[in-house]
Design goal:
With 311 residues, the protein is mostly helical. The protein is 54% helix and 5% strand. It contains eleven helices and six strands. Strands 1-2 form a two-stranded antiparallel sheet. Strands 3-4 form a two-stranded antiparallel ribbon. A two-stranded antiparallel sheet has the order 5-6. The radius of gyration is 21 Å and the shape is globular.
């Protein structure tokens, strides 16, 4: 049933079926795991630098009036470095756990390149929005850092794609997302923190529009969809079945992760080429990029291979 959800996948050995960029020992390094690793590493940096925040103050997304530099003063790296700064505490660990579970699921669904582009969107778009407001309105002040906002974007994107997925104790994903987003907005409103309010609003909008624009969350018609360049979505200019030899060889390793289809080649060479192209497409853009007919052919091929293997 499409509304049932599990934190596992027959596609891919990695958690959620996410295809790794590379492997270190037995550990698959996906975009999600790399993000968590960097965040954990910053716990150590935070402890070493002490109260002066000798490094962190140059990574925050912060307004010019705080006197440590800002994007408006030409420190453009702050647009991408602000989520790296994470303070070590229990809530950060809980946030990382949620990001790990949901991020890997979305990365397995979307494909590694589109998911990386999605994370970049969740980092850049809110940061650019508050920077523009800071330039236009001198009294618009604030600071942002940590993975919290990016994780919130992942949460709402996940809820849009899997709205009826059940979390303990049986609460659907859309309910969890609405509750958490609502609490954050109430806190920003109560603190009269316009900076945080805008960051939240733009992050939620980016998460919803982003997941829809990457070709998902199709069961939620009210979310608008905007066209994205092929370099972000991972779409190839080559039609299915005519992938170049270079692309096929570079993606051959990913097929080992597609555990639903054994590596034993079909007898029919034409079928071999078709399945080969479908596997390339799944490894590059995710399982949901397949049409119903393509997915049916892949499932039929998987059944044939299992029967042949059992003989």
């Amino acid at each position: 049933m499409p509304d049932r959800y599990s934190f596992s996948s027959s596609f891919g050995r990695g958690f959620g079926g996410a295809r790794p960029w590379f492997t270190v020992g037995n550990v698959d390094i996906t975009t999600t795991t790399a993000t968590i690793a960097v965040s954990f590493f910053y716990f150590l940096v935070w402890a070493i630098e002490g109260p002066s925040r000798g490094l962190s103050k140059y990574l925050y997304l912060v307004s010019e009036e705080f006197g440590v530099g800002s994007v408006a003063e030409g420190q453009f790296w702050r647009l991408v470095t602000w989520p790296i700064v994470n303070e070590p505490d229990f809530w950060a660990l809980l946030l990382f756990a949620v990001f790990f579970m949901l991020g890997n699921q979305l990365e397995g669904l979307m494909g590694r390149r589109p998911f990386l582009s999605f994370l970049i969107m969740l980092t850049l778009v809110p940061a650019i929005a508050v920077t523009i407001l800071e330039i236009v309105f001198p009294d618009f002040l604030g600071v942002a850092f940590g993975l919290r906002f990016v994780e919130l974007g992942i949460l709402v994107a996940f809820a849009a794609q899997f709205p009826t997925a059940r979390f303990w104790p049986g609460i659907p994903a859309w309910g969890i997302a609405a509750f958490i987003v609502g609490l954050d907005f109430l806190q920003a409103l109560g603190d009269r923190n316009d900076y945080q309010f805008i960051m939240l609003a733009v992050t939620v909008a980016t998460g919803l529009i982003g997941i829809k624009s990457f070709g998902h969350a199709n069961e939620v018609p009210w979310i608008p969809k905007v066209p994205l360049p092929a370099v972000m979505t991972g779409e190839s200019s080559h039609p299915a079945g005519r992938s170049t030899g270079t692309k096929r060889s570079s993606r051959r390793r990913g097929r080992a992760n597609l555990s639903s289809v054994p590596a034993t080649p079909p007898v029919d060479p034409l079928a071999d080429l078709e399945i080969d192209a479908l596997l390339d497409q799944v490894a590059e853009r995710g399982l949901d990029s397949l049409s119903k007919e393509q997915r049916k052919r892949l499932e039929e091929h998987s059944k044939r291979m299992r029967k042949r293997k059992g003989q």
